[in-house]
What does this fold into?
Amino acid sequence: MFKLEGFGLFVKDMPTMIRFYRDVLGFEIKEDEQSSNVYLIKDGVLFLMYGRNDFEKMTLRQYDYASPIQGHTELALAVENYATVDEVYKQLMDLGVASIMEPKTMPWGQRTCYVADPEGNLIEFGSFNP
It folds into this structure.
């Protein structure tokens, strides 16, 4: 009946978010930093960033936004193996990205860690491959 097509974030500071997802995480974002709408396909999944003000104007509504760290959603990114989880986490810490949880091996066999993007959205890096 339904097919999951993608995931979107409503962002406050588009230039900062574009730089983070493009320059830090390596997403192939073609829009310039002054864009109000970013639309890209990452590993076959639509990833959208839409300016909060633009979305509110379009829907004729105002919304509440959690800050500074929000725990409503996460963006889960798979990496090759346990060592890569640790490497990615270290690289992100060296770049000053906000840590939420250092790498841990979970009881269900996944090694995972969490960081936050500049607007407090949670990002997980994980692998089930030792």
